[in-house]
């Protein structure tokens, strides 16, 4: 066996040991959590409807008493969250005002918050939109019950963290990145959300990169506009020369 092969084999063994140790630490930590914490984060639907809040920019126009409210109990939330939990790759077609981006962000935020060393990427066409998605995650963290914030501590206070990042003390993180396949290559996260994929010219290349870089969940979410996303969603992949 050559030197290169030995090094690669050693790296594989070390990675396997690190994963096993991480699982053991996660199980130990979970076993020590108070029951009310376990109950609050048992699934995303419970967390977002009972233990945290989203914000509504149109709260005054809609006559609401506050911009902050728990997620509404919309009938399609549970099925989508179950799909996200049991499928590795999920494609979602949506229309506006369905809160699907919020729902996807909430699902991945809960994973990054509760799983040791769990990294998550949010990718959109522009950096400003990526910042907005990270802000969604920060809002969900900040507006959740205090006993959950005490249990799942941050690496630094939210105000001291970069606009494109939210990091947890246990090593988990959320990172926003702009569009482009080259943006993914330096990361190897557990989860990945590509939001508004129809508006990203390199969405197809991003998907290919995600397949090799992401080991956990891959979520593509967009309206059904014409182009690669709509074709791929319906299983009609065009020849790149057409």
Overview of this structure, please?
The protein is α/β, with parallel strands linked by helices and 242 residues long. The protein has two domains: 1-32; 41-233, Rossmann fold. Helices cover 44% and strands 13% of the residues. It contains nine helices and eight strands. The protein has helices at 3-32, 35-40, 44-50, 77-86, 100-114, 127-142, 146-151, 203-213, 228-233, and strands spanning 54-55, 68-69, 89-93, 119-123, 165-167, 173-177, 191-195, 218-222. A hairpin with a 5-residue loop joins strand 5 and strand 6. The protein starts with a helix and ends in a 9-residue tail after the last helix. The model has no long low-confidence stretch (mean pLDDT 86).
Would you spell out the secondary-structure blueprint of this structure?
Elements lengths: L2 H30 L2 H6 L3 H7 L3 E2 L12 E2 L7 H10 L2 E5 L6 H15 L4 E5 L3 H16 L3 H6 L13 E3 L5 E5 L13 E5 L7 H11 L4 E5 L5 H6 L9
Parallel strand pairs: 3-8, 4-6, 4-7, 7-8
Antiparallel strand pairs: 1-2, 5-6
Helix pairs in contact: 5-6
């Amino acid at each position: 066996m050559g030197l290169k092969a030995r090094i690669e084999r050693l790296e594989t063994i070390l990675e396997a040991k690190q994963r096993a140790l991480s699982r053991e630490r996660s199980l130990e930590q979970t076993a020590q959590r108070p029951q009310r914490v376990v109950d609050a984060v048992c699934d995303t639907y419970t967390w977002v409807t009972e233990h945290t809040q989203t914000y509504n920019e149109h709260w005054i126009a809609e006559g609401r008493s506050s911009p902050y409210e728990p997620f509404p109990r919309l009938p399609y939330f549970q099925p989508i969250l179950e799909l996200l939990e049991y499928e590795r790759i999920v494609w979602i077609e949506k229309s506006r005002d369905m809160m699907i981006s919020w729902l996807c962000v909430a699902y991945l935020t809960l994973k990054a918050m509760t799983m040791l060393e769990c990294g998550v990427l949010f990718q959109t066409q522009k950096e400003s939109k990526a910042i907005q998605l990270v802000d969604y995650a920060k809002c969900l963290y900040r507006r959740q019950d205090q006993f959950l914030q005490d249990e799942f501590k941050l690496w630094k206070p939210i105000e001291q963290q970069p606009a494109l990042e939210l990091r947890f003390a246990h090593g988990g993180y959320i990172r926003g990145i702009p569009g482009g396949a080259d943006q993914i290559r330096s990361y190897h996260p557990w989860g990945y959300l590509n939001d508004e994929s129809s508006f990203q010219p390199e969405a197809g290349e991003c998907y290919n990169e995600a397949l090799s870089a992401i080991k956990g969940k891959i979520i593509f979410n967009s309206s059904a506009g014409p182009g690669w996303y709509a074709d791929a969603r319906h299983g009609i992949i065009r020849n790149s020369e057409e």
